[in-house]
Amino acid sequence: MSAAPTESDPAPRPAKRQRTSENDPDAPSYEKDVSFWFEDGNIVLVSAQGTGFRVHLGILSLNAEFFCDMSGLALPDRGEGGFTLLHVTDSTRDLSHFLHAFYTRAYFYTGKPTHYDALDSMLRMSTKYLAQKLRSDLIKHLIMIYPPEMAKVRMHQHLIDPDQKCHSLYAIAMAREHDIPDILPTAFYFASTISPATLIQIHSDASDLVLITSAREKIINAAYRDAWGWLFQGRSTSIMCFRKRLCQGRRLNVIHRIALYPEQVPSLFLQDMPHQAERARQDSSDSESESEDEYGDENDRVCSTCLGEWRASEESGYKRMWLNLPSYFKLPGWEALLKNSQ
């Protein structure tokens, strides 16, 4: 028989009961989320940080295939609260964005400017829980921002969060994690327009830094060689040019303007082609026979023959560069990347 406890040997305290929603409804083992706690909800998802989301299994099942059949999961019986408790490994942030996509009207749709943190969370969750429609819409949204077509690369820049200057680095990470190879070349291209000094400050992956800065140099070289080859060719004007001195002067002016801003060379796909500004000036006149006062400074334009050659050369060079874009970043060609799209 054991000795009775004394003041110096107090009796051992009984073990604390585990606080759960079943044995202590007033003190659950999680903190209720303020946005997603519906009294008629029949399932509580508890995040890795201990936040509980009381929602409707029917809504989850309607949007995410994973929740259609959870018979294989070892779930506790419903407690007095009338709901099933499911602990998940997902973060509170990921769960919140995921549920907002289903419950909050117009929280996200393809073409709506959306913060990249939200896009990343929704992509992660839609992939994990087989929410195919949401995942498809997210991928379409990212392809709008980082399209495989050169003609569309500037079309949806308004979808980029203005506070996220390194948006392309987020996109690269999302593409890799969530298997969206379609956007990699264009996302890497956007990254190459970031100055090397800034890139080093905001990105710590050494292999990516080498890849992006190396590709930046390839893009610069290709710009002068292919895209702007007509401007920098040995022959100053078209063989058929009928205003050689003036056309040569204008060509040199364009070269001078490009030389003034070397840091902008990698951004050539995000700007008008040099010939387009010249063409706009040409289009402002009904014909070359109009007076100089109506047309502008004659030294500030090229003849129609030179403009035609310039345009053809430039458009061909840009297309060639875009076709080769994946190779600058050691990626498969466009055809291979797009073959297994989505």
Automatic annotation (TrEMBL):
<feature type="region of interest" description="Disordered">
    <location>
        <begin position="1"/>
        <end position="28"/>
    </location>
</feature>
<feature type="region of interest" description="Disordered">
    <location>
        <begin position="279"/>
        <end position="300"/>
    </location>
</feature>
<feature type="compositionally biased region" description="Acidic residues">
    <location>
        <begin position="285"/>
        <end position="297"/>
    </location>
</feature>
<protein>
    <recommendedName>
        <fullName>BTB domain-containing protein</fullName>
    </recommendedName>
</protein>
